[in-house]
Amino acid sequence: MVPYFVVKVVWTVDGLRGGGLHDGAWSKLDWTALNGLTVAMAGAAILLGLALGQRWGLRIPGWLILLPAWIGTGFLVPMIPILPVLLLTAGGGDPAADVVVPAWEVALVSVSFAGFGLGVAVAVPLYVWRRWPYAFTGGPPTDPAAIRTTGAVERTVASLAATVSVALGLPQLYWALGGTFGLDQGALDRRDAQWHVLTGNSGVWALFAAWGLWTMTRRRAGAGFRTPMLLTWVASGSLFAWGSWKATFAYAVTSSFPSPEPPVTLAVENHFGALAGSVAVVALLLVVERRRALLDRDAGEGTDKTGQMPVPGT
Asked: CA angle 77-70-165, nearest 5°?
């Protein structure tokens, strides 16, 4: 993230000296404040990377690590598979715009985003595995008493988040594949290749969240638990991070490039996406916490549900 951090510092200084973008949507935003915000975000990302990779990071309160890790993962990891496609389909932007971003800045920003996305995709699971090993041990409990109590709460919360995720994901996939029902018929020409790719990607990850939640809270066997857990972690972060970010900018400024989705549809997508992501991660944490409680109980009996001696919790 250091290259991105440097670029944003330069842009912030430029804004303080009177430079920046002054056309279109940017004319309604404070160039200096906006870039100052991203400088702070980049700094937080650098600190997060260091904490995930150093021993002292294990002593930081869990929420202080998991919250930025969840948001950062949600922002960037879902973009990694489609990054080559986005680069290949990148257009020339608005022909009427007189502001051109230097190629070296674009390269540094791209390297930072791709590198950080790959970094957290690897580092966060390893960090969790080391600090909270019960999250990766065994599978969902088969204890009938546990299923009747906390299991019912988990399934209810997960079902709510999964339903909203499906309601968001299916229309996005339909639009990405060329469907037009529900779109602003006067703005269909705005559907370029990147819009189709990004819309389809959002739909896929929303459905990943639904599948992961359903699998974690309905499956009784231990096999295959880690994959839905990790997918739910990334997908819920994506729903929350991108939904919140887009909702904030939609509220702050009217875009110079109207979206094919009507304003009401965009508002529903963004706000309910952020809500679904929040509820999904709560369901995920409930599942993991129940596993911890059951492993602690089994520790008193000498073994865990895998038949192995339990790893002490942290």
From this structure: 75
- Give the helix ranges, DSSP H, for 132-225: 144-148, 150-176, 193-218
Contact assessment for residue 173 and residue 132, using Cβ atoms and an 8 Å cutoff: no
Report CA-CA distances (Å) from 279 to 10, 50, 204, 239. 38, 29, 18, 10
Angle made by CA atoms 253, 254, 257, in degrees to the nearest 5:
130
Give the C-alpha separation, 269 to 263, whole Å.
10
One digit per residue, pLDDT tens: the chain, 314 residues?
998 898 888 888 877 776 666 555 555 556 677 778 888 989 999 999 999 999 999 999 999 999 999 999 999 999 999 988 887 876 544 444 445 567 777 778 888 888 999 999 999 999 999 998 888 765 544 555 544 445 788 889 999 999 999 999 999 999 999 999 999 888 888 888 999 999 999 999 999 999 999 988 876 544 467 889 999 999 999 999 999 988 887 776 666 567 889 888 999 999 999 999 999 999 999 988 887 777 777 666 554 444 443 444 44
Per-residue tokens: 110: 């791209």
> pTM for the complete prediction?
0.82
Q: Angle of helix 226-252 relative to helix 103-131, nearest 10 degrees?
A: 140
